[in-house]
Automatic annotation (TrEMBL), chain A:
It comes from Streptomyces spinosisporus. Homodimer. UreD, UreF and UreG form a complex that acts as a GTP-hydrolysis-dependent molecular chaperone, activating the urease apoprotein by helping to assemble the nickel containing metallocenter of UreC. The UreE protein probably delivers the nickel. HAMAP family: UreG. This is Urease accessory protein UreG. Residues 30-200 form the CobW/HypB/UreG nucleotide-binding domain. The keyword tRNA-binding does not apply. It comes from the Bacteria. Residues 1-21 are annotated as: Disordered. It is found in: Cytoplasm. CDD domains: UreG. Facilitates the functional incorporation of the urease nickel metallocenter. This process requires GTP hydrolysis, probably effectuated by UreG.
Automatic annotation (TrEMBL), chain B:
It comes from Streptomyces spinosisporus. This is Urease accessory protein UreF. It comes from the Bacteria. Required for maturation of urease via the functional incorporation of the urease nickel metallocenter. Keywords: Chaperone, Cytoplasm, Nickel insertion.
From TrEMBL, chain C:
The gene is ureD. This is Urease accessory protein UreD. The keyword Chaperone applies. Required for maturation of urease via the functional incorporation of the urease nickel metallocenter. Coiled coil: none annotated. It comes from the Bacteria. It comes from Streptomyces spinosisporus. Belongs to the UreD family. Its main location: cytoplasm.
Length: 226, 224, 251
């Protein structure tokens, strides 16, 4: 038997293949999308803090305009710099996560090659609109992050992000009283749009913070490695 | 040849990473060298006869089975800017991924294996064109067109330029695109006989310098 | 009546003299390519290209060859700028430079500017072949037109090979009749002076020198122990300043 034979003769993976060229299972990839300012980066940072002791993880950011999100994560020191990669998106963040995912695939594969083995890679989208979703060729599951201050009618409006994301996060619930958002109504609208798909209401400033989202991620990972 | 395969390969929606690159237009816009459609046209013209000709010649030579390793080294020698070499290899790797899904072939697999971090995009383009049943002229046209269409698309986003003006620019350049592609095919044939040293080496100092300036920015929209 | 251009050639061979210095066993020039040995320093021999006539003119063919043998050190400059002028005969002038720098040898090739005068048509090739551990500083400056003058047609190709591998291959074409776009925002953007420095030092290693950048000038590590400094400027004086500053950056 030549165990490394496969490694020598198999070229790089094409897309979402669950196995790496060496036959090992690759990391679970979870996408985080949502409108500008809804708290994607803050959620990623909180998830890294919550999970970094138990999992080997890395982050890919897709900014609209700069490397700011990557720099925020570096500044907050949630992960060592070699575990954070920024992808430029040519002014079209949704293109890079949906229509032409090649640069993001390269980023996640390079992270696994260079710092691996990894359990989890979070791919953060640049702030975009309600139609931006991740390609299934790039991520295994996606989280759509909206916030109460962006208007409590967003769940009712729906759109692919709200309707189809594997997890909908309604962020900044602590602000609801100040911006006049009706959380019960948001929950009912989300339920109507999403049927059985889960919704998490969170505030990263109060209560249990990112714990519900972290628990959902752990469940995804358990299913992935099962 | 399959004309539809050519259209696919030249389509900006083919998922090979081109959308995130401006062909030097972002640096030129920031420096004030492109302010509207007229500048864009001159910019594209300069690209056509320099980066475009070189890329198309590499692509044509690759279709004509000049060895990939030699072409890749020739592309390095014709790309002094390290930022542009990195961009060309990234794009080559991305194109390879999309092409292996679209036109599976042992030859593509072999090149992907030999260059796990990517060969220069025009060289990959030539190999891909052959895998898709296309000829040297197809690959050359594709490379020359890409050398201007990416920049035109980027300037539409960067300057909010009227997209109809940008299309007008590309249409006016079409006869020149054809001529450069023909020159590139000639050059590719020349390389089969005389080696890669015979390939054009037309350079554009501002594209190279601009690419290095651009790579140093902390804030940018495009990868190159 | 057909007028044929001038053919001229010059040849330099530099050889280590075994006492830490450099001898010049061959130093041959003629007419417009006269050579003169000047006072060197340390182990380095110095040679000046002394243009006895203006030129090259249309139809002329100039060839310069310098070979620096193993362990030798040579510095070549020129007494004045070279001016490409229109000639009586039809056709382009040619100026071919071939430089061989053997293992462990060193060459500073620092001629003055090449000025492309209105109506001239010149094709320049510079081919440098370097051995293992060779050191090189090569400067190439082109000024497009004399003061307030349109440039002539000028094409210049520069090829640098080290240990049998081509490290750099670049050609610049400008002036009337050059492929369109040469004066536009992708190529020269209205600049009237363009130049490059190639610096090869074994200690650079592959890509070890960081790329630094200024206004219209970039220091670009090549895929080997070499960097290319590429610069554009409004005029020859500013170009020289940019190249000098970049060279100083490299230490």
């Amino acid at each position: 038997m030549h165990l490394d034979h496969t490694h020598d003769t198999t070229p790089a993976a094409l897309g979402a293949d669950a196995r790496r060229p060496d036959g090992a299972r690759r990391a679970l990839r979870i996408g985080l999308g949502g409108p500008v300012g809804s708290g994607k980066t803050a959620t990623v940072a909180a998830l890294c803090r919550a999970l970094r002791e138990e999992l080997s993880l890395a982050v890919v950011t897709n900014d609209i305009y700069t490397c700011e999100d990557a720099e925020f994560l570096l500044r907050e020191a949630v992960l060592p710099p070699e575990r954070i990669t920024a992808v430029e998106t040519g002014a079209c963040p949704h293109t890079a996560i949906r229509d032409d995912i090649s640069a993001n695939l390269e980023a996640v594969e390079d992270l696994e090659d260079e710092v691996g083995p990894l359990d989890l890679i979070l791919v953060e989208s640049g702030g975009d609109n309600l139609t931006a979703t991740f390609s299934k060729g790039l991520v295994d599951a996606q989280i759509f992050v909206i916030d109460v201050a962006g208007g409590d009618d967003i769940p009712r409006k729906g759109g692919p992000g709200v309707t189809t994301a594997d997890l909908l996060v309604v962020n900044k619930t602590d602000l609801a009283p100040y911006v006049g958002s009706d959380l019960d109504r948001m929950a009912a609208d989300a339920k109507a749009q999403r049927a059985e798909l889960p919704v998490v209401f969170q505030s990263l400033r109060t209560g249990s913070g990112v714990q519900d989202v972290a628990a959902w991620v752990r469940a995804q990972l358990a299913a992935w490695t099962a | 040849m399959s004309r539809a395969a050519l259209l696919m390969l030249a389509d900006g929606r083919f998922p090979a990473g081109g959308h995130a690159h401006s062909g030097g237009a972002e640096a030129a816009v920031k420096a004030g060298r492109i302010t509207g459609a007229a500048d864009l046209e001159e910019f594209c013209r300069g690209r056509l006869h320099t980066a475009g000709l070189v890329a198309a010649s590499l692509a044509a030579a690759a279709v004509l089975r000049v060895p990939v390793r030699e072409l890749d080294a020739a592309a390095d020698a014709r790309t002094p800017s390290p930022a542009l070499r990195v961009a060309a290899r990234k794009l080559g790797r991305q194109l390879m991924r999309a092409a292996r899904a679209a036109w599976p072939s042992q030859e593509l697999d072999a090149v992907a294996r030999e260059f796990p971090k990517g060969a220069h995009q025009p060289v990959v383009l030539g190999v891909v064109a052959r895998a898709a049943g296309l000829g040297a002229s197809d690959a050359a046209h594709c490379a020359v067109y890409e050398s201007v269409s990416g920049a035109a698309g980027a300037v539409v986003r960067l300057l909010s330029l009227d997209p109809f003006d940008a299309s007008g620019v590309l249409a006016r350049l079409a006869p020149e695109v054809d001529r450069v592609a023909d020159l590139a095919v000639e050059a590719g044939r020349g390389a089969v006989v005389e080696g890669v040293g015979a390939l054009p080496a037309a350079s554009a100092p501002l594209l190279e310098i601009g690419a290095e300036v651009h790579a140093g920015w902390g804030v940018r929209l495009f990868a190159s | 009546m057909t007028v044929s251009g001038v053919r001229a050639s010059a040849r330099i061979v530099a050889r280590a003299d075994g006492r830490g210095g450099t001898a010049l066993p061959v130093l041959e020039g003629e007419g417009p390519l006269a050579l003169r040995r000047t006072r060197g320093s340390g182990g380095e021999a110095r040679v000046m290209l002394v243009g006895a006539m203006s030129g090259p003119l249309g139809g002329d063919e100039f060839a310069v060859r310098a070979a620096v043998e193993s362990g030798a050190r040579l510095r070549v400059g020129s007494a004045a700028a070279t001016i490409a002028l229109p000639g009586q005969s039809k056709g382009a002038a040619r100026y071919d430079v071939r430089l061989d720098v053997a293992d462990g040898a060193e060459l500073h090739w620092m001629p003055e500017q090449l000025i492309s005068a209105q109506g001239s048509d010149l094709y320049v090739t510079t081919r440098v072949v370097l051995g293992t551990g060779a050191r090189l500083v090569l400067r190439e400056e082109q000024v497009l037109g004399r003061a307030d003058e349109q440039p002539g047609r000028l094409t210049s190709r520069l090829t640098v090979c080290i240990e049998g591998r081509t490290l750099l291959d670049q050609e610049l074409s400008c002036g009337p009749g050059a492929p369109s776009g040469w004066d536009g925002p992708a190529v020269l953007g209205g600049c009237r002076a363009v130049g490059q420095l190639v610096v090869v030092r074994p200690e650079f290693g592959a890509g070890a020198v960081a790329g630094a950048v200024g206004e219209g000038v970039a220091i670009m590590p090549l895929g080997g122990p070499a960097v290319l400094v590429s610069a554009v400027a409004a005029d020859g004086l500013r170009l020289r300043r940019a190249l000098d500053e970049a060279l100083a950056c490299l230490g």
